[in-house]
Amino acid sequence: MEDWSSYRPAHFVLYGPEVWFRLVERAHEFVGYWGLLGPLAGLLAAALVVAGRWRGALPLLALGWLFCAYGFFGRLYAELSWVGPWLAGVFLAQALLLLLALLRRPAPASTVARWGLRGAAVGAGGLLATLGFALLGPASGAGWPRAEVFGLHPDPTALITLALLPGLPGGWRRGLLALIPLLWLALSALHLQVLQAAWWPLLLLAAGASLLGLLLVGLRDRGAAPR
Amino acid sequence: MTRGWTRRELLQLAAAAPALAAWPALAGAQADHPRPQRKALPKPTPGREDTLPVIGMGTSQTFNVGSDPKLRAERTEVLRAFFAHGGGMVDCSPMYGSSAAVLGHALQQLDKPAGLYSAEKVWTDDGDATRAQVAEQARLWGLPRFDLMQVHNLRATQPHLRTLRAMQEAGELRHIGVTTSHGRRHEDLAALLRREPLDFVQLSYSIAEREVESRLLPLAQDRGIAVIANRPYARGHLIKGLQRKGAAVPEWARVELECRNWADLLLRFIVSHPAVTVTIPATTKVAHMHENMAAGAGPMPDAKQRQRMIRDVEAL
């Protein structure tokens, strides 16, 4: 019998920090300046949600997850680990869920973000996730190739999605759309801890803040719903 | 009466001239790249090298770099340094992601160094997939056959061993063995060593992980099974911990054993155990490879000095 209690998260990470962060750089090398479209798409998605045009934001978010599935996990990460294709499948599933959310009937105005407190919170979260996270790598002295951006890299893609979800129509669908990004951020935080990246707690903090935001808007929407 | 040079002697001298001219450079290269001591391999094969340098190379984590050209080039230099020191055993596994492919690329760049002793593993629960996995790994390495094939972490041990033994008898493999790591499944391993006619066993052994000293190492020695010690630095934690503490190598080890650094002390502790044939530190740095290989070339501690090493490291 395998003694599973003797396993630690580090035993499942089959490469060193250098290799992982080279993956971040190589994702940029593959797309060149087209990579700038990633953060632009993230910012556009945030602006659309804040303006209440959430239907326009969903395909943008879905595209981000799709590119991560194919490029980052399917092409790059799959070379390092047999988990790569599985993660590509999970990211593809999230892209499909985001597209399926388009099938929803028009939502009551009170349950989506508009300019105001909710819109401001969603907008600030989106901005922070898009630009703030991208600056972490370069700020650590590693240069611009280490900037992690929406659509190219999984962490900012999950962060932006979670930041914008409270601005989307509510109900169980919002919770369903949050499930994969939340699980990914928890897994990614563990992975970054093994790789000794200093910012791993930020992912848990962001995931916690998003969860709180989702719960608060969920409660508010429930109170505002017609009885 | 003096005799003049014959034509044959003059021709022999001319043929030897380049080698004589290169002699100082060769001697210099040997001094720059000290060669680790060697230990006997099990089952000597006529016409083949029957000893192995006590320092080999592991590839877990370090060679899993995918198709990244920059990192592949760096790993090739690590392997070049290994063979410059007369390196022998290189160990890999299908579990290590792209490591076998990266190794194959590096070996091709180095024109398949002559001293290579290739050690691979079978890592699948499918007992019928042994041959297919061995063939796939050989393709990735770019080799016609392996020197050693091991059952990794005792997965589907019996069916794999049956096939590996048949392959060995057919001359498709030189040696066969089994592996564990992180101190797991020692009971199963001990039973296997008692029961099976194996050439090699691979297990975790370092100055910080000495559980195998009490039973498995003596058992392997009794049964004439060669031992590969993996995780010599406890996955880097041991040497990094000592360096973080700013601990200096004990003075007596510097004087008596010429230990210049912790690599010298930690690796010599392992390979000086009479049961251990080779240890396989893994590294991504050429400088560390030079240190590892040089460690195998220095004076080895006796039993008393080994105990002193343990006391000194535990005191830190």
Task: Describe, in plain words, how this protein is organized in 3D.
The complex is a heterodimer of chains A (227) and B (316). By secondary structure, chain A is mainly alpha-helical. Chain A has one domain. Chain A is 68% helix and 0% strand. Chain A is built from 8 helices and no strands. In chain A, helix 2 packs antiparallel against helix 3 and helix 3 runs antiparallel to helix 4. Chain A is globular, with a radius of gyration of 18 Å. Chain B is an alpha/beta fold and 316 residues long. Chain B has a domain of 212 residues: NADP-dependent oxidoreductase domain (TIM Barrel), CATH 3.20.20.100. Chain B has 12 helices and 10 strands. In chain B, the strands form 2 sheets. Chain B has an 8-stranded parallel beta sheet. A two-stranded antiparallel ribbon of chain B has the order 1-2. In chain B, strand 5, helix 4 and strand 6 form a beta-alpha-beta unit. The N terminus of chain B is likely disordered. The chains are: A mainly alpha (227), B alpha/beta (316). The interface between A and B is medium-sized, with 18 and 21 residues.
What's the SSE blueprint?
The complex is a heterodimer of chains A (227) and B (316).
Chain A: H1 17-31, H2 37-50, H3 54-76, H4 83-100, H5 117-142, H6 154-164, H7 172-194, H8 200-224
Helix pairs in contact in A: 2-3, 2-5, 3-4, 3-6, 4-7, 5-6, 6-7, 6-8, 7-8
Chain B: H1 7-32, E1 38-40, E2 51-53, E3 57-58, H2 69-84, E4 89-91, H3 99-109, E5 117-122, H4 130-141, E6 146-151, H5 157-169, E7 173-179, H6 186-195, E8 200-204, H7 216-223, E9 226-230, H8 237-244, H9 251-257, H10 262-271, E10 276-279, H11 286-295, H12 303-315
Parallel strand pairs in B: 3-4, 4-5, 5-6, 6-7, 7-8, 8-9, 9-10
Antiparallel strand pairs in B: 1-2
